[in-house]
Amino acid sequence: MNVSLDEMLKSGRFNATASRVLEIMEDYIPVHTWFVALNNRKHNVIIKVNRKDGIVQEGASSPFEETYCKLVTANGRFPTVIPDTEKDPLTSALLITSSLGSCSFVGLPLVYGETGESVGTICALDKEAHHYTKAEIEFLNTMADVLSRAITLEVTSKGRA
To answer: CB of 8 within 8 A of CB of 14?
Structure first.
């Protein structure tokens, strides 16, 4: 990808799109915290969160290897659903889990169109269990596709500038 993580973080157009997608997600699926993160396989940065009292904070940066987002990107284009992060063998030993405690989690990758490279995630965390319906997962896939297309457009327009 020709645009760096830092450039994407500064993109007003992408940030506005991410904010709007999170507003829609919050209206449609009743979980506490929705967020969008971008990564470069070294660092994972939370760029947008739907609420100030969220479980995660906007602007937080973590080593990519210690995030739930790493699990999402490793899962290809499929959603990653973890009913309880403290009980799941993939998440129970992560530092983030010891910090957050028990949460339900869902995440989908955001991909750059030309390469299919995963460059971020759209995720939800909630202290209460949430069992995602087939319709909710389909809706999540659509929102991930919208944000993936926004990333691709942003990178493409920067390449032409």
So the answer is: yes
What's the pLDDT tens digit per position in 46-89? 999 998 887 899 999 999 999 999 999 998 888 999 999 999 99
Other CB atoms within 10 Å distance of the CB of residue 98: 11
Q: 48-56 contacts: CB < 8 A, separation 24 or more? A: 48/15, 48/18, 48/19, 48/22, 49/22, 50/22, 50/23, 50/25, 50/26, 51/26, 54/125, 55/100, 55/103, 55/125, 55/126, 55/127, 56/125
Domains present along the chain, CATH in parentheses:
5-155 (3.30.450.40)
